[in-house]
# Entry
Amino acid sequence: MDQRMAIPILAAFAVVVHLVELTIPSPVPFFRPGLANIVALIGIVFLGITAGLYITWIRVIVGSLFAGSFLSPAFLLSFSGGTAATLAMGLCVVYGKNKFSLIGTCLVGATVHLLTQFLVAYVLFLGNGLFLFLVPVLLLCALVSGSLTGVVSHLLVEKIKHTGIFQPALVHG
Amino acid sequence: MLGKFLIQTLKSGDLFVTGLLLAGIIGSTVLLSTKSEGEMGIIEVDGKNVRWVNLDRPGNFPVQGKLHPAVVRVHSDGLEILDNRCSNPSFHSGRISREGEFRICFPNRVLIRIAGSKRLNSSEPDAVSW
# Structure
């Protein structure tokens, strides 16, 4: 599959997953399972970090337009967290493939995502340290969601590799 | 089967990150769990203190948020924001009573938090705003 076709298709998948995820009630502020990041990670593994970023940005922008939260505080948090997580996962995949499996990559992505949202909320909205009291819960959420998305990502990537949809030269993972 | 899968899949970096996360969870839980029940609540709007409230004196306190008015209610067992126009219910609902706990309605910039054990003298007003 051509990269020019693959990115929009993966981005569309990511938007659908993102919108479905919004219907899942969240017990903790900001926390989402991060299922849409699986699609971004697939983009990174088969197409590169830039493709992963495009998928994330399209997912966040289009998803927020559908959800009616474009340019809202939630959008800013999602955009910053998604970008940071995608970059972190990309670095793990491209430069750390001997040290990190996709499970560890997703753990890194989930942690970076949540901590970035923390930082943005602190800088933009509040300016005090009260959010520190959410750190234990959010780290636990990162551990759980990163592990689950990592296992799912690993299984999906192995399946996709065997289908041969993407050209072998582009496979990074 | 899961064990075999994990043994075959996990690498050193994965275990390092997992260890860091667990250490972070345990460490931050220990550091932050030493707070006691507070006696004073603080109401902030847009980062500025607007009111102190004594948690021993239940009542409703109207607050002008950035977008619309809201109410902060003091119960016998804690403090809460009453604002059904707040779009992040998972972050602003529920009562708080322990030092360091807080609730915030993001769009309206209203925040409440428990301040600790400072007690106003009985001769002073039970809420101060400035």
Q: What stands out?
A: Helices of chain B lie at 2-9, 12-32, 89-92.
